[in-house]
Design goal:
The structure holds two protein chains of two kinds.
Chain A: H1 2-7, H2 9-23, H3 32-52, H4 63-85, H5 87-90, H6 92-95, H7 104-132, H8 142-166, H9 170-184, H10 203-210, H11 214-226, H12 232-256, H13 260-263
Helix pairs in contact in A: 2-7, 3-4, 4-7, 4-8, 4-9, 4-11, 7-8, 8-11, 8-12, 11-12
Chain B: E1 8-18, H1 27-32, E2 39-51, E3 56-60, H2 67-74, E4 82-87, E5 91-94, H3 107-117, H4 122-136, H5 151-164, E6 169-173, H6 181-196, E7 200-204, H7 208-214, E8 217-222, E9 225-231, H8 232-245, E10 252-253
Helix pairs in contact in B: 3-4, 4-5, 5-6
Chain lengths: 264, 255
Amino acid sequence: MICPVLRYRFLFEQLVRRELRQRYKGSVLGVVWYLVNPLVLMGAYGLMFGVLLKTAGTDIDDYLLFLFIGLIVWVFFSQSLLSAATSLLDQASIVGKVRFPRETVPASVVTAQLATFGALLALVIPVAVAVRGTLDPALLLLLPLIACLFAFVVGAALVVAILHAYFRDVQPILAAALLPWFFLTPIFFRVDQLPGLADNRWAEPLLKWVNPIAPFIEGVRSVLYDGRVPDGAVLLYVVVAAAIALGAGWALFRRMERELAVVL
Amino acid sequence: MTVAPGELRLHDAVRTFQLRGDRGRSLKELVLRRHADIPTVTALDHVSVAIDGGERVGIIGRNGAGKSSTLRVLAGIIPLHSGRAEAGGRVAALLELGAGFGREFSGRENIALSGALYGLSRAEVASRTDAIVAFSELGEFIEAPVKAYSAGMLVRLGFSIAAFLEPDVMLIDEVLAVGDAGFQRKCHDRLAERIAAGMTLVFVSHDADAIRFACDRVIVLDAGRVTFDGATEEALAFYNTSFEQGRPWTVRAAS
């Protein structure tokens, strides 16, 4: 299973480059757009939630940094899934005409998004370190956390990509779901500090554990923003979720990709 | 059971397709289970064929006889509903004009993509690129995006790539006919060279002369069944006779 994937690594590399180049080909700012999008989001949410609404964000120090870390994880997750959903259709001209491991297509889309995510991290890590003033050993956990996040997103991307190839409703459903999903995800707030939670205890496990992306954001943020090792439960969740998503996603993809040339 | 490089086997192969306009299903259809009334066509109807390494085999038949489907099954692009399909070694397929090309990308970039799709490494592609560019005679057009290519130029690029991938099996669907006479000559020489080295050629065409020239064995397909499999001249004679009799297409509703 792994061997053919290794054999096709040059293909994978080319698909990633194409994805990166094609996205903003012909636009003036080019690749810079990748960075502008989350920065603009950070500015708008920071102004609304941190300055004007002053809701759950009031007692969080350096709220913009807090916000930005959650946002870049979310943007990586949501953009990866949205572009993976249509990836097989976008590449229909090769998928339907040549025999090759088709999982390289959605995986390359996620990898292209990972490159942007990496650039944003490179931007935010020195800021986070400077703001806290200490170089915490917890930062060493960042790499394994992001490896788990990547595996989780690739698994989810395989699922949405293959389902969308068969059922063209998947991408619009996903796009519609991502907006409410964003507001339910602890990006601009901490679950523990929600004022309404005292009367609605049932919502806490929902926000923290049912939403699979929440522990990933929590983990990355505790390392990068708080400078401390995440809870054991969060670390365990992240590893297990990554393994399940990748394993189940790949199995489903393998099962359904056989008819791909016919349905595309 | 595995087959040796260059060998092709179809055992009792069956493949049907649904005839429909829009390819993707909608969730509504899935929920309501309303896809039962779509007519199906049997593209391969219990086809058994054994082709050995180094053979030059033509496939002829009317439109819709299952020729292209047979090639796509042999190329591993479409799975069977029942039966078995085996292809030994590396298979290169020239199925449609410009199939497998990124239209926005240059000829040179598409050489790299095609090589990569075939499973080659960067170094393996790089070592073949000059030969492919030279063979295609595309000159400076190799740097232009392939969407600007004429049909003949697409064939030149597609064939040059396939020929220099040095596959064990080469599947060609009609497309070569688009090239000019000089280039066709070159293609045939290159094919002969590869076949002498043990490559298997499977060639689909409606052009009797091209079949006569390229193949010494011909399979006649009709409505997804093999109706003749033998020497070229006999097969062409058989095909012409059956063609005159004229039979309706086989399209039937699913039960």
